[in-house]
């Protein structure tokens, strides 16, 4: 009996998974791939717009959704506030990424389960590049799913990604003008400068993040943790002095990075440094310091 195989590719709204989907069309046109986007319900408007643009080029994209999943399972609409309550009002953090499990992996797991129940073996295509040293940040579900990394197999590196998007008539997603990654508007992997810019670009989403941060202080157990870390709630960004300090620090980091590039003569056009696509190098991080590959890749 021939095996039933389902090829799936998760789009995060980030540049790498988007480029991978287009690259697969170019290089493996015979593969019948199903695309999916797991909408946490807290995505940036720019991400949703970009997914619509991708759909015009790729064809249908399944929208998996944590809120509707919970409705389907008869648990009512489970929004982030009620999830927070379930976690004793502890915000998710790098040490406890419960958000990724609830908002990203569970909806995918449900979809995968339905495919497995139909007798499919699943091949999941992931946009991890050949120049990425680790698979840090990639959370997966415990199911019989084979992960495939075509960029790694084909030696595709960061500098190839924009070319792939461009030759398919796509610009970088619009959020790159102020933020380095897709994912939830309140993602704790953001740099402080990105929180400042969230406030400027989407004040209502900044306010929402502030609300989540306040939580129910009567029920908070243990030390208080904020989106930006210990001791610095988002409302500190309303102080013009703190805001200016964060902007100045970021500008210094960018300058430092440009100087380093000049010294190493790694690129000819220093002015072409994009502070948001190069944010990891600017802050000496490897892929966001283990940031949420599952969410932004
Ligand atoms: S994008 Fe950030 S906040 Fe959202 S699920 Fe991923 S890690 Fe959590």
Automatic annotation (TrEMBL):
Pfam families: PAPS_reduct. Residues 7-135 form the Phosphoadenosine phosphosulphate reductase domain. It comes from the Bacteria. InterPro entries: PAPS_reduct_dom (IPR002500), Rossmann-like_a/b/a_fold (IPR014729), Sulfate_adenylyltrnsfr_sub2 (IPR050128). GO terms for molecular function: catalytic activity. This is Phosphoadenosine phosphosulfate reductase family protein.
């Amino acid at each position: 009996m021939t095996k039933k195989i389902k090829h799936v590719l998760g789009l995060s709204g980030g540049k790498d998974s988007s480029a991978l989907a287009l690259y697969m069309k170019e290089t493996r046109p015979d593969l019948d791939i199903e695309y999916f986007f797991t909408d946490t319900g807290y995505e940036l408007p720019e991400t949703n717009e970009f997914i619509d643009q991708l759909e015009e080029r790729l064809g249908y994209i399944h929208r998996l959704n944590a809120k509707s999943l919970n409705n389907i399972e008869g648990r009512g609409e489970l929004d982030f506030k009620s999830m927070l309550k379930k976690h004793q009002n502890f915000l998710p953090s790098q040490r406890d990424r419960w958000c990724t499990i609830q908002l990203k992996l569970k909806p995918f797991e449900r979809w995968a389960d339905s495919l497995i129940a139909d007798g499919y073996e699943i091949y999941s295509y992931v946009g991890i590049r050949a120049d990425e040293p680790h698979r840090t940040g990639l959370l997966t579900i415990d199911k019989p799913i084979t992960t495939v990394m075509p960029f790694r197999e084909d030696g595709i590196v960061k500098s190839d990604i924009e070319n792939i998007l461009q030759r398919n008539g796509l610009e970088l997603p619009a959020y790159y003008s102020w933020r380095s990654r897709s994912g939830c508007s309140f993602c704790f992997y953001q740099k402080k400068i990105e929180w400042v810019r969230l406030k400027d670009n989407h004040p209502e989403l900044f306010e929402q993040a502030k609300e989540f941060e306040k939580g129910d202080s009567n029920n908070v157990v243990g030390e208080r943790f904020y989106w930006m870390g210990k001791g610095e709630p988002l409302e500190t960004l309303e102080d013009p002095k703190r805001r200016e300090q964060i902007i100045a620090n970021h500008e210094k980091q960018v300058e430092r990075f440009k100087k380093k590039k000049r010294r190493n003569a790694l690129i000819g056009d220093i002015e072409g440094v994009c502070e948001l696509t190069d944010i990891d190098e600017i802050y000496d991080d490897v892929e966001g310091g283990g940031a949420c590959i599952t969410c932004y890749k």
